[in-house]
Amino acid sequence: MRKQLFIIIISIFLLGLVNIAGADYSGLTIPRIMYKGGYDSPRPEALRSLLAQIARRTSIEVNREPTELKLSDPNLFKHPFIYLGGDKAFEPFEEGDLKILRKYLHSGGFLFIDDNSAVADSAFDRSVRRMIARIFPQTPLRKIPRDHSVFRSFYLLNTVSGRAIIKSYMEGISLRGRTVLMYSLNDQAGAWSRNKLGDWNYDVIAGGYRQRQLSIRLGINIILYALTLDYKKDMVHLPIILERLRRYQSP
Amino acid sequence: MIELAKIFRIDLSEFDQWQINWAQGDQWSILISVALIVPPALWFFWTSLRRVGSTSKKLFLFFLRIFSFAFLFMILMRPELEFRKSNALKSHIAVLLDNSKSLSVKTFPEKTSRIDLVKKTLKFNEEYFQKLRNDFQVDTYFVSDEIKKTNYSIKNYQAHRSYTDFSRVLDALDKEYENKSLQGVFLFSDGADLTQEPGKISPSILKRLSRISGPVHTFQAGSNMQFKDLALEAVSNPDFGFIQQPVSLSTTVYSSALGNRNVTLVLKEGDRILGSKIIKIRENKKRYKVNFEFTPRKIGKRIYTLSLPRFAEEFILTNNQKEFEIDVARDRIRILQLNGRPSWDSRYLREVLANNPRIDLLSFFILRSLGDDVEAPVSELSLIPFPSNLLFDDYLSSFDLVIFQNFKYDPFIDKKYLINIRNYVKNGGSFLMIGGELSFQGGSYSRTPIEEILPVTFQETAEIFADKEFSPKINQDFSNHPVLRLEKDLNLNQNVWNSLPPLQGVNLGLTASKNAHVLAKFEDEIAGSIPILVAGGFGKGQTVLVATDSVWNWNFRNEGIGARYYQRFWNNIIDWMIAEPQTQRLQLESDKDQYREEEPVLIKFKLYKKNYQPAANTLGKLIISSRFDEIIKKDLKTDDQGEQVFSFLPKQAGFFTASIEIDNLKEKVMFSVLKDDAEFQKPLVNEFVLKKMAEISGGQYQVLDGSNDLSSFRFNKPEIKVNSYNRSFSLWDNWWAYGSVVGFLFLDWWLRRKVGLS
Questions:
Q1: Fewer CB within 10 Å: N-end or C-end of chain B?
Q2: What is the structure's pLDDT at A10?
Q3: How far is CA B552 from the centre of its chain?
Q4: Chain B residue numbers touching A153 (CB-CB < 8 A)
Q5: Which residue of A has its CA nearest to B408?
Q6: B1, B12 Cβ separation under 8 angstroms
Q7: Could you tell me the domains of chain A?
Q8: Which residue segments constitute the domains of chain B, with CATH numbers given?
């Protein structure tokens, strides 16, 4: 009996080792970018909440621990996905930081920017647009079309939701066929964010459960897009996806 | 003439003409110089004679100076006296004898070959040509696609050249008789010029005929009457094809005087019939277009045969079959990539594969596992069912490479399909497993066919995946291995490997098999030496494992420069796995794919050791064989560079295989030696061309029966004289010419002194 108990304890310990080892490294981490001026973390529990949804709904292993990085941090290039959110104007980035960010995006990194202010033409929005214009002076932000892979990378979506629907679309920048930056004005993080007891931190504006769910789905799709790119446009997927889209979109 | 001959002491009977030649080339410069200098000099001289009272003295001195200048002018003009003998020259008559292979075709009903008809005619008219030689220079040529001068001997006259090209013949003839008097041409031929379309004569022949000054008399050897033949007149096939892609070819079948019957045209590869078509031969139709389409199943040079039945009454049987070669290549590398879950490692590898134009990628990501709650109906998801049956049963053999990237087969693939993967690799497929928690033991592959094919064995350890940062060390024994060659230069390559960013996360509990090539390792004080990159083989296939899921760091973390090496690393692995020729240990090649008859063949091979260092002084066996038997068997030893070259001269046309067996490796290469029998594809007599050539040049056209009398053919005899020899004497380069000038100048000086001038 003791022997069996010993084996069970050892087995649990070993399994634990495997899981711990796996979770430490292989988990998806989404660092939040810190910046000067404004407030870079108005939705502090949003990323953890989104990662929890990803872990629950997909096969992706996640690391839910909040991570914050400055663009100048040497660890930036360990994380191909970064998040930048805010609801106030922020100081212009230094030229060195912009250079790093430009290199990061050209080398295969992905940046998701989220305006948490929930108002149109916000101070944060103006700061973001100024920053993007400095990073890509020749490549302006463009509307992301509805047939973009981000709208079918996991869920089939035909709307851009969020805590507040400021714009019915996202904008983005693509380099050589790969979208490297996506920008939402609808406070996605506000819709994702929930506390440790499981309650939603912020009410969605002019919408309910469905609007929040669509925002979570969009968040998952954005991450899946960064991890699989145009995988869902492979020919093997197209017939089934197009058929479902046709049914899904028909009244 | 007689006086001159006496002066220069020559025999007048040897010469019949004389003339004076002046300085060549610079005559005008001398004349201009003299014209500019002499008149002012004479004028100055005349004015200097003012003090001389006597007019006769003045004139004497003046003419004395003129004589001096005249002699000087003579010397400058370098006059020569030439005595010549000229002869009358004979005009030329050219006799052109077609010696192409079609002249061997027999005529109906006598069954005399065309060439024999020509020979008979020449013999019958031997006397005529003998007489013709009295008045003309009769030059005999064998003609085909070139002209070759011969003595008037029909002993060497054989129908052996590949084909006839009248344009080239006339061109060569024109050059041969440039500046010579060609008064006429006899052309003995069947007119079978493959460049000429039926019922037409090309402008190039017309243009060249206009340059020939005399008439061209054409004599047709043979006729098309009751010419029985069934021939593959033309086969239009591509030189290259792609595996599993249909190849189209079209043929033209020619039939003559065979009546109404059905014949079968068969396409074969070796003994395997790929297709057949029935052709309904009708008396009133000569040509039939037949198209074939087939799909090559194997890579490499493949030989195909098209054949028609052979009938006893046919005049030519060799044109009933034709062999041709198609180099079947891989159009794209077909890769199946299965990802156990979306990760940065799978994302960056997919990007490399998807952006490579050589690769046809089919990738699947397991986006959700059975325990995941997607909180949406299926209709709102983009997920599709995983088609494991199709992939691992029906279409597995169509992939060149299967990649399992951090992929656990259960519950997505039935375990029985792992046996299919083993058989796929055994039969020549490639399998790559990339690490992660869901690979190797973590994917429950222990004691499965996957463990059997991989070049490692799995150990059951407490920890199967470690989250450790490490830099892989390349195995110096394999530093030359194609997978590790990120740069050609070995030192530079080593520097590149040392500069790559560290990796994080390694699969543990893997022990390299006996014949595995451990290319890179993770050396840890506690864990020991852990294989990270291992290459091996199973059956005819290749397997590789990468025991980490963090190679993507070489792309992203290397901040730009690494992306190139990241791509090259994966391309190296793929090239080695699908056995691209440049990655093979034994490389065998011929210097050409196709040779003509009597052209030497050069076979070269290179052998590398298992670690890809040149294998020097290794004995191998080279066998060269035709389709029916071995021709050459030779033991050859590699040199210091692991290379050896062998040259030989094929004695016959056909398709050959050179195979080398060395160090337990085998390689073979195919090449063909082409027989020049193109004329047998269209062996018909071309009456139209011969008639037209005669008509345009003002000659006559006759059909040979072996007893044609040529004595009525007459040619102009213009008188042409040419120098046969000559002799020249210099009139200035001698002592009396120089003495006269000096004498006149001295007399001039002495008289001037006498009359009181300076």
A1: C
A2: 38
A3: 44
A4: 382
A5: A59
A6: yes
A7: 26-249 (3.40.50.12140)
A8: 2-79+731-754 (no CATH), 89-226+684-721 (3.40.50.410), 229-329 (2.60.40.150), 333-577 (3.40.50.880), 585-674 (2.60.40.1930)
Instruction: Find the closest chain A residue to B560 by CA distance.
Output: A107
**pLDDT over 70 at B1, yes or no:** no
Please, are residues B209 and B697 in contact by the beta-carbon 8 Å criterion?
yes
Shortest CA gap A228–chain B (Å): 5
- How far does chain A reach from its first CA to its final CA, in angstroms? 64
Type of residue at A237: H
Q: B105-109 long-range contacts, Cβ below 8 Å, gap at least 24?
A: B105/B190, B105/B222, B105/B227, B105/B315, B105/B316, B105/B683, B106/B315, B107/B222, B107/B223, B107/B225, B108/B223, B108/B225, B108/B226, B108/B227, B108/B228, B108/B315, B109/B226
Least trusted range by pLDDT, from B118-132, B144-158, B578-592 = B144-158
Laid out side by side, the sheet with B643-648 consists of B586-590, B601-607, B643-648
Residue B397's alpha-carbon distances to B334, B336, B419, B423, B593, in angstroms, are 10, 11, 13, 10, 29
CB contact under 8 A, B348 and A61: no
Is a pLDDT exceeding 90 seen at residue A120? Answer: yes
Secondary structure of residue B3 in the 3-state scheme? helix
pLDDT digits (tens, 9 = 90+) for B60-116: 888 888 888 888 888 888 888 888 777 777 889 999 999 998 888 887 777 788 999
Paired with A173 in beta bridges are: A181
Shortest alpha-carbon distance between residue A29 and chain B (Å):
11
Question: CB–CB of B505 and A25 under 8 A?
Answer: yes
Contact B464 A18 (CB under 8 A): yes
Q: What pTM did the predictor assign? A: 0.68
**B376:A240 CB<8 A:** no
- Mean pLDDT for chain A overall: 86
pLDDT band at B324 (very low <50, low <70, confident <90, very high): confident
- Interface residue of A15, A24, A26 to substitute, partner B, most B CBs within 10 Å: A26
Q: Give how far the C-alpha of residue B292 lies from the chain's centroid of Cα atoms, to the nearest Å.
A: 27
pLDDT of A242 > 50? The answer is yes
- pLDDT per residue over B556-611, tens digit each? 876 556 688 999 999 999 999 998 888 999 999 999 888 887 789 999 999 999 88
Beta bridge mates, B294:
B247
Q: Cβ(B319)–Cβ(B681) under 8 Å?
A: yes
- What are A152-205's pLDDT values in tens digits? 999 999 999 999 999 999 999 999 889 999 999 999 999 999 998 989 999 998
Closest CA to B517 of B490, B483, B493: B483
Whether B2 contacts B12, CB under 8 Å? yes
| Residue B707 pLDDT greater than 80, yes or no | yes
Query: Where is B505: in which H helix or E strand?
Result: strand B503-507
C-beta atoms surrounding A73 within 10 Å: 15
Q: Is the Cβ of B395 closer than 8 Å to some Cβ of chain A?
A: no
Distance from CA of A141 to the nearest CA of B (A): 24
Contacts of B27 (CB under 8 A, 6+ apart): B77
Query: ω into residue B411 within 30 of 0, thus cis?
Result: yes
